[in-house]
Hints:
Blueprint: H1 11-35, H2 47-62, H3 69-86, H4 88-103
Helix pairs in contact: 1-3, 2-3, 3-4
Amino acid sequence: MTQLENLFSTGTWQIYIVRKLKKPLLYLLVKACDVLPEPTEENTRRRNTHRLINLYHEFFRHHRSEWPREKMFRGLWKIAIIIYDFDNYYGDRVDKVLEWWLQCGWEFRVGKNPGRDWEA
């Protein structure tokens, strides 16, 4: 395996991930985008939910892609924000993981854009 390859980028696994995981997940997220209401500060209650809503808007201020990716990302954000807000079980775990994440030495892409479909 070369440095750019990993187990999941090779043959059988890649086909499985694309056909059995990504395709149905994409469909679910696009549907969620169409069905779920837009989370706002007025219809949510947790302090950090409002921060997530701000991040959501910041993300889409820069993200530029066509359907279905646009709806997929909107659906993903909506699901994450809504579940975080109403279900303390998951919201509290997200808080803990984010706390660990900020402490783990994550290497951010400082000053770099994520690539295509992104405006600075």
